[in-house]
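Form 7-S
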Amino acid sequence: MRRGIRRLPTLWRATRLARRWYHARFGAYPDWQVQSAADSALWASARSAAKGGPRVLMATTIGSYAHGITLESAVAAALTFRGAEVHALLCDGAMTACAECEASLYTNVNTFVEQGPQRDLCQDCTWPAERVYEELGLKVHRYSDWLSREDRLEARRLSIAHPFNDIRSLTIDGLAVGDHAHAGALRYFATGSLDGEPAAEPVLRRYLESALLTAFATRRLFRGIGFTSTVLTHGIYVPWGIVGEVARQEGVHVSTWNVAYRKRRFIFSHDDTYHHTLMTEPRHHWEHTPLSPGQDRELTKYLASRREGLFDWIVFHRARRQDPEDIARRIGLDPAKPAIGLLTNVTWDAQLHYPANAFPNIVEWLVQTVQYFATRPDLQLLIRVHPAEISGFPPSRQPILEELRKHVPNLSSNIIVVPPESDMSTYALMSLCNAAIIYGTKMGVELTSIGLPVIVAGEAWIRNKGLTHDASSPAEYFRILEKLPFRDRLGPSQLARARQYAYHFFFNRMIPLPFIAPKAGYPIYRLKLDRLQQLLPGASTGLDTICAGILTRQPFVMHASEPAPVELASVMGG
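Output:
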């Protein structure tokens, strides 16, 4: 076992990190030597022909993200077959904090504050990913190759020079380093606010230093190599958010991706994190295309499956109680008063600045909403706390109900709370309601598609589609609440548009890759290729859509004018 694993101070951490080491050696990462053995001549020809082609950087950066390495190495191979010269970027222990770090890994946060991740997490981070890319024969860049001693000193100096309260809004050389550092620190603590965290300041400063190191290294890399495109996961946090910021500043096209809900599917976006782009994407991709009867049945079947997660690989909750009437009795819902549903989301998740939010954060929204409903005895407020608070990864260290009790110790009698551990179906709960209020949950897409009116106070993806009541200020939000209860559900034309968007979201924006196979445990999928021909142009519509988006900026939307496969004639024998 490697030295970094032996140094871990607790058995729990040792077990967790040892498991990651085991997976690095035995199956979590693709073995491209085996995958390409039968097609070695084809692959050698593709690599040779791609030299001098458009340069694309797979900005994987964190090598221990096995699922990221799997997806990005496969896309790298596919891009090579399409004539791109692909490179990869990996951190080699240079960062002082990153998205791999979590408070749950450190029983004493001071250990992380004093030592950072270098003595444990970094020990087995780079080498498995580097091996994957080297097996493909692709150029790998390490952070340290592009950082000078002066860069490191400057990152340290700047990270301690700015007042703690100013860091989130800090911009350096036009880069929003503070926003991504703040999001990274929230993810580290798994909370929606740094208030009350004794080690908040030193941890945030670690993330700021890492953000600066990433900025210095990637700026020099982009200028030194001359990339046309870069591919990275999330598009937020440290390091990916900073890589994206620098790329945009340097005129490099950015493609971000994340695992979609549906099995074998991924969401890609141009220029920014999908958390932003899904709220602003052009409507013409979906609103002028009525669903066929077959598509409508397909959508109905999939939405029904969401209750059990049968076709999904991201499932936070499997409800056992599905009967609305039984649930209404159990929670004491008064059938004589309209109920308004309220769905929370995890406080720390994707906490970037969103200018359209009506409230500064989810806690403030919830507190003010509860206080408002205390003045409306004619209504009931049914709060469903997101199950991912306890089943997500990492689990939230800032439970929303604890935050609510700090501000409102005694809830009004017309407010009912269903906690995250409840076995009650969220879908059944919302079927009891006149309308739903959401902040950032994706449930808005599903609820509108069954005709339920939805009020949006935050960055939910259903915002800006002309389907919901969107609030961009507290005053606007409370004006909408004054209209409750609503007289009607969504009318036929609105319902049809809502279902068009739901189909677009679940079937066209979630791009399938047939060579990605779901699996139990970590990571949640693996590469399943029989031959490299499965990565060639024309072999997969989903892969063609992704590669065309990366290389030619075509929409990352299935069947959006059916992207023509981008191929290299010499590789294909033309």
